[in-house]
């Protein structure tokens, strides 16, 4: 095992913590507050942000959509450049935080912002950024990744840079009180699959990473089982912290990682508008069945340690069924057809996009080529 690990985001966790940002952003710096479609105006988050920044100079940009688009974000890039913005404050879910990362990076670049997603521009500098999280799911509030869509061409691509790693993040579970049930479920599923992407590969005897991943998975099962009693502080706190820890870099340090479910899932979202979390639930069980020979040992470990299943020759298969049952218990579909897509045409379109995006060798063994991706999709319809 070999890794270098740092997570520089200062976390302010708990109720009433939004006021902490006053000290995080120097008073002499001009702030651009970025948010989405307005949910923050219905749950008191906006007011708390404005009051925390009472002595700062700030501007705002709203309207970042779920699965944020370059087309919208470039308007904020223009503002950031023209107004000499010195700090960006993202207030929202993964889409707003990812979008803000793009704005922070593109504002320090003279070329076309999409170059960042194409890898033509490697981001070395960005406007400093902080995040106020309102939807626990992606972990974007304390990681260095972002996923941006180009609406015109239906491309949804990720980029990564330490320069866009948030300086601080506020995780106040009270902000979750207005979340629709559907988004809470999306968050559970996304955090679950993030953990799996860094755990369900092959054994490397990484006791700490495996043990912590298993704790996260068991906690997510508990939270899903308590879904009907979710209207309480501790349930919200535990989900918010689980989703953060699932993708802050820790459990993935020094271990093999997969991410094929995500890369194929992103195409489903870009082409058919399937919510991110739900795209993963469609792909993952079929992907695990397709890759069972190379994932068998970790699936068996998960079966024993997470689901409490007994040893048997069918343990890996039973683990996949248990994962599928977990999604179904949350009323989340695991087949593409449940979203009403035309089978043959959908598969062709997704494969075409994977090819265009050079997603030709996915997974921990780089063994999921377009052939395997097609097989996975065929299993998932
Ligand atoms: O726009 P507003 O009005 O805020 O409404 C949002 C949006 O409609 C709403 N919402 C958020 N907080 C709320 C709320 N509604 C009521 N009360 C609240 N407290 O929820 C809707 C969905 O929000 P969105 O930010 O799109 O959801 P999520 O956090 O699941 O983010 C999904 C995006 O993150 C990317 C996905 O691809 C997708 O684009 N990802 C980012 C990752 C990363 N940066 O590390 C990793 C992930 O795997 C993922 O790919
Ligand atoms: Zn995800």
From TrEMBL:
Source organism, top-level taxon: Bacteria
Pfam family, one: ADH_Fe_C
Keywords from the named record: Oxidoreductase
Fe-containing alcohol dehydrogenase-like C-terminal domain residues: 185-377
Recorded coiled-coil stretches: none
Gene3D superfamilies for this protein: 3.40.50.1970, Dehydroquinate synthase-like - alpha domain
Record domain Alcohol dehydrogenase iron-type/glycerol dehydrogenase GldA: where: 8-173
InterPro entries linked: ADH_Fe/GldA, ADH_Fe_C, BDH-like
Name of the molecule in the record: Iron-containing alcohol dehydrogenase
Origin species: Litoribacillus peritrichatus
């Amino acid at each position: 095992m070999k890794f270098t690990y740092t997570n520089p985001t200062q976390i302010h966790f708990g109720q009433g913590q939004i006021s902490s940002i006053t000290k995080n952003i120097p008073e002499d710096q001009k702030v651009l507050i970025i948010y989405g479609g307005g949910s923050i105006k219905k749950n008191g988050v906006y007011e708390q942000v404005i009051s925390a920044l009472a002595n700062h100079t700030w501007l705002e940009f709203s309207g970042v959509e779920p699965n944020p688009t370059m087309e919208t974000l470039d308007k904020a890039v223009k503002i950031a450049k023209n107004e000499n913005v010195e700090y960006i404050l993202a207030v929202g879910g993964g889409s707003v935080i990812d979008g803000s990362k793009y704005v922070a990076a593109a504002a320090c670049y003279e070329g076309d912002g999409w170059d960042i997603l194409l890898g033509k521009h490697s981001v070395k500098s960005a406007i400093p950024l902080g995040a106020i999280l309102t939807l626990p799911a992606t972990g974007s509030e304390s990681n260095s990744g972002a996923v941006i869509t180009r609406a015109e061409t239906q491309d949804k691509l990720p980029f990564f840079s330490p320069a866009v790693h948030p300086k601080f993040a506020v995780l106040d579970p009270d902000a979750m009180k207005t979340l629709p049930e559907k988004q809470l479920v999306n968050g559970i599923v996304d955090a679950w699959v993030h953990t799996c992407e860094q755990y369900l590969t092959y054994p490397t005897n990484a006791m700490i990473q495996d043990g912590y991943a298993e704790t996260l998975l068991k906690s997510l099962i508990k939270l899903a089982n308590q879904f009907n009693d979710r209207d309480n502080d501790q349930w919200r706190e535990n989900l918010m912290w689980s989703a953060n820890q699932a993708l802050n870099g820790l459990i993935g340090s020094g271990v093999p990682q997969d991410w094929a479910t995500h890369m194929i899932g992103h195409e489903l979202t870009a082409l058919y508008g399937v919510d991110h979390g739900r795209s993963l639930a469609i792909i993952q069980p079929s992907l695990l069945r397709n890759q069972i020979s190379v994932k068998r040992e970790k699936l068996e470990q998960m079966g024993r340690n997470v689901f409490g299943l007994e040893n048997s020759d069918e343990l890996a298969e039973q683990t996949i069924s248990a994962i599928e049952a977990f999604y179904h218990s949350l009323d989340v579909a695991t087949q593409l057809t449940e979203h009403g897509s035309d089978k043959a045409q959908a598969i062709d379109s997704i494969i075409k996009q994977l090819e265009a995006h050079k997603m030709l060798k996915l997974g921990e063994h780089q063994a999921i080529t377009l052939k395997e991706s097609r097989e996975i999709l065929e299993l998932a319809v």
